[in-house]
Amino acid sequence: MKRRIIVGTIGLVLLIGGVIFVFREKIETLIFKPTKSSIELGLSGKPESGVQVVATDLYVPWEIIFLPNGDMLVSERSGKLKRIGANSKTYTIIGVTEVGEGGLLGMALHPKFNENGWLYLYFTTTVDGMATNKIERYHLNDDRLSDRTTIITGIPAAPNHDGGRIAFGPDKHLYVAAGDAGTPENAQNKASLAGKILRITDEGKPVIDNPFSNEVYSYGHRNPQGLAWEDKGQLWATEHGPAGLDELNLIKKGANYGWPSITGDQQKEGMETPIANSGSEETWAPSGLVYSNGSLFFAGLRGQTLYQAKIDQNKTVTLKAHFREEYGRLRAISVHDRFIYFTTSNHDGRNIPGQGDDKILRIKASDLENLE
Ligand SMILES: [Ca+2]
Fold this sequence. Notes:
CATH class: Mainly Beta
Strand content: 35-45%
Bound molecules: calcium ion
Number of strands: 25
CATH superfamily: TolB, C-terminal domain
């Protein structure tokens, strides 16, 4: 009798384990699944806020970008690249080292993606036993990633402060948010790639009119993780501060953003003070950043909030907090076809994942802009 209970219990545990394993590996795509019941499920977000669940059961989604046919590409920190939509597929990126905050992080499509099919990936890898961050370029077609090419390597990596966001600017050059990799003084060293916003060509070379004749575009950054251009073409960036004192900066070519000399509201000759900071009592832990209709929106990890910063003509901002602690940690954000997409990051080791985590959620940009 006792033996039967034990065998039965072991069987049950194995069964539950198997079910969890199967579901852990499966991405539920809700809005994109072309069946009626799923579409209804997908539209079952909170009616009062208009939030819809797009996909569930992801693992630390770090970036979302959209292909011309409307499919999403989602990077997962462990090195999986998931395509969700009409042509769903999972690619495994070879050579990704997921350690601490490092792993497969940012992504960008070439401005002429329709012609060349080029996809850029920022990730942590290991060279001679040492972690480093690099950007690779791939050719993406429906079935596979090919023509793997290193664009830039040797961006310092560490368990913390790996930066990771990449984006093509209005000038068609690639901007790269690089963290200080735990060595603050490197942020002030213009010869180091750490603690910088870099600007390189689509082939990985320094842009000819960069301020210091290398890849560096701006310096004195601690751990920038969000890049977005507003409608006048000015670049903004989010940055993690040391203890609170998280920053929203307007980025100018060649400027020094102060780390580690100044933080928060502090001022110093030759250094930029952030347009907005969280103060030392509050932590945003800001990651992805987008611009939509007069506002910057950024995802807060520790802050567990989607922040809205309304910019006025004097470059001051008023901040609003949306969805505070409703979905847990938030990391990636993307704007596409009048919707703002954002992801949870509850599997990143700093929260207890909830049912369906990690998720991609979306809300109409106009609804979000008007939320009180
Ligand atoms: Ca700063």
